[in-house]
Amino acid sequence: MANFYTDNTDLKFQFQHPLMKKIVELKEQNFKDSGKYDYAPCNVEDAIDSYDKVMEVMGEICGNTIANNAEQVDHEGPVCENGRVTYAAGTRQNQEVLTQAGLYGMSLPREYGGLNFSMVPYVMAAELVGRADAGFANIWGLQDCAETIHEFASEEIRKEFLPRINAGDTCSMDLTEPDAGSDLQAVMLKAEWNEEKGMWMLNGVKRFITNGDAQIKLVLARSEEGTHDGRGLSYFVHDQAWGGVTVRRIENKLGIKGSPTCELVFKNAPAKLIGERKMGLIKYVMSLMNGARLGVGAQSVGISEAAYREALKYAQERVQFGKAIIGFPAVYEMLGVMKAKLQASRAILYETTRFVDMYKAYGFIAETRKLTPEERQEAKKYQKLADMFTPVLKMMSSEYCNQNAYDAIQIHGGSGFMKEYPVERIYRDARITTIYEGTSQLQTVAAIRYVTTGAYLNQIREYQQKAVRPEFEQLKKILIEMTDRYEEACAMVSGKDNSIIDFHARRLVEMAAHIIMSYLLLIDAQNNADFIKSAQIFIGKSYAWNQERYTYIANFTDEDINAFV
After folding, report:
1. Looking at residue 7, what is its pLDDT?
2. Quick check: 182 pLDDT over 90?
3. Is 437 in the active site?
4. pTM greater than 0.85
5. One of 251, 437, 487, 510 is an active-site residue; which one?
6. How far apart are alpha carbons 176 and 205 in whole angstroms?
7. Are 456 and 520 in contact (CB under 8 A)?
8. Residues 55 and 5 sit within 8 Å (Cβ to Cβ)
9. Which is more confidently placed, 478 or 180?
């Protein structure tokens, strides 16, 4: 029996992080549910034990059901008939098994039927599902919509929809349109108030909507007549049972084929307003997108794990020239770098998740009482860190999962190009991760402000203050040198025309990311020997990668940009 949680010690290690104690205490609000619900923990150890037990269940379902269905789902895919979508048989089975196991809505409060888990086990579950089947991860992961409803909707809407999501009702976030992809300010789907029905009516078209025929839909629409920017957009919830939305078609995609990507037509579709008017894009969608980017980070790490394991297995079994190909330097170097990228991606995934856990917990506490000045300061600190790390996480983990999928096929040789091997599907599934929920280029745009303000540098210097054991001093010296070079590169660009800063933004963000991820691996290596090799490999590679970027920036003249224009 396969279990994707127990076969990976990197995961359980995350529950041992020093910040987890405080995260659990904040999330449980002094364990106020203990005795009220028979499954509520009474202390930190009890909560962590619950996380561990539920992850074992999730790992077993991922290893024995979702992963086994992945190839059939990829081949069969969903179908659209009479404006409705029917999932592939394997997708329906996945959904049924997870619903019966109570693995939807695990981060929601118990009063709505959730488990009140912190974000760390929720993101871990998303990683496990991503490893099993990246396409199904999109269906399962869209329960993120529940977080938006919980955080911003009225109590009436919370009570109406959250228990249903816990019971397995599917969700979608309906944002993009034919003329509004990355530029969501251009959304034109119209929302008009109907006094007679006491509801909003939605009219227009949405395109590229993941899991578009979901039962519960969060829709970005233009509520303010005569507006053309983000200030005229509001956010709405639509129930499929209310009618008015049909699926025009399912897109025929390169990968993640089990997840239906739909074009939708709204014709007088009833909806209810979430939060305040005109805050749809500015506040609610931005929050949802940050959660979605965290989800893509988890999905990307899951895909990286799947790619690495398939490559390792093949390299151990494939014999050429009288020995297994894992014995050849060209192959074992590739595998070493793949694992280093995987573990570095996982390190920043859970570091970011802990930051999110901290500030969100304070946000919910603030609904019940006034925060102390110290608590407000700490919440602000962790929200800033989450905002800083999220674009870097999304960009780097998705880029690395594409690189690992590419190298997994290379290790398979010609066999990897054939559909008989899972790496062919993994490679196709990986490709979307650098595109949806904000391309790598848009993540750079989000991250560059933290380069120019020195925020990344300050956080790197904070990691630098952590003591390391004598055997790791040389690695730390390399990181200090890399940090000095990064600071010099930032100074070279500082004060330049915005076009020059934008031109070098990707290089500067990646330099910061390499150093941050290297420090996180080095910190993990202090506590777990399983990370030592990856820390050595990743720091060595990062030094070379950063040197290349530094040299390019140092030798670049302002006139050189004309060659690209």
Report:
1. 98
2. no
3. yes
4. yes
5. 437
6. 9
7. no
8. yes
9. 478
